[in-house]
Amino acid sequence: KMDDDDDIPQLSSHTLAALQEFYLEQQQREGMKTSQGFNQYSIGSIEEDWQLSQFWYSDETALCLAKEAVLAAGKGGRIACVSAPSVYQKLKEQDGEDFSVRILEYDRRFSVYGEEFIFYDYNHPLDLPENLLPHSFDIVIADPPYLSEECLQKTAETIKYLTKGKILLCTGAVMEEQAAKHLGVKMCKFIPKHSRNLANEFRCYVNYASGLD
């Protein structure tokens, strides 16, 4: 078994400089998009921020998870996306569908979504606005930002507070036991893909009969 330290990517100063440059370009691109009246809900309108451990799903995966959420939530259902912004963006593209959605996210760039955005830090799992009532969501989709038991455990507190019952968790395959322990969810056959390949094998877990098997 590898040392735990091996999991933490150490960036060289050269890589960091390249990343800084990449971010500057991103910001310039963001600025251009906004001025062109870019569709704020489309994937990529807010680019992933690696420093926040954000990795967007591929278009197909985000759409598949969004559709699953709509089905699971049912007509007029309420969906919460916890640290899963690319699924939220796909849900926003499903115009005319009968559901409502909230995004709980640490990245304040998502505040462009107005009242649907709720600032969320998994270190304070129940530090939520008063109008976010317990057990008021038909399904919660969550993608904890880090593959650690601590992060999963804290995110689990939030999920359990929000959901009426249904949970769709996306996290690493290595988290299978902890996911079962903290949320009672089982791995699905569906394999989520990311727009950039991640080193860790990623899986979906649910606690209800889903369309992901």
UniProtKB/TrEMBL annotation:
Q: Which GO terms describe its biological process?
A: methylation
Q: Which PROSITE patterns match?
A: N6_MTASE (PS00092)
The Gene Ontology CC terms held by the record are: cytoplasm
- InterPro entries attached to this UniProt entry: DNA_methylase_N6_adenine_CS, Efm5/EEF1AKMT1, Mlase_EEF1AKMT1/ZCCHC4, SAM-dependent_MTases_sf
GO terms of molecular function: nucleic acid binding; protein-lysine N-methyltransferase activity
Which Pfam families does the UniProt entry name for this protein? Answer: N6-adenineMlase (PF10237)
Q: Which reaction does it catalyse?
A: L-lysyl-[protein] + 3 S-adenosyl-L-methionine = N(6),N(6),N(6)-trimethyl-L-lysyl-[protein] + 3 S-adenosyl-L-homocysteine + 3 H(+)
State where the protein is found: Cytoplasm
- The answer on whether this UniProt entry bears the keyword Transport reads no
Output the superkingdom of the source species: Eukaryota
**Keyword terms of this UniProt record:** Cytoplasm, Methyltransferase, Transferase
| HAMAP family on file | Methyltr_EFM5
Family matches, as PANTHER family: EEF1A LYSINE METHYLTRANSFERASE 1 (PTHR13200:SF0)
Write down what this protein is called.
EFMT1 methyltransferase
Species of the source: Erpornis zantholeuca
User: Mind giving the lineage of the organism this protein is from?
Assistant: Eukaryota, Metazoa, Chordata, Craniata, Vertebrata
Gene name as annotated: Eef1akmt1
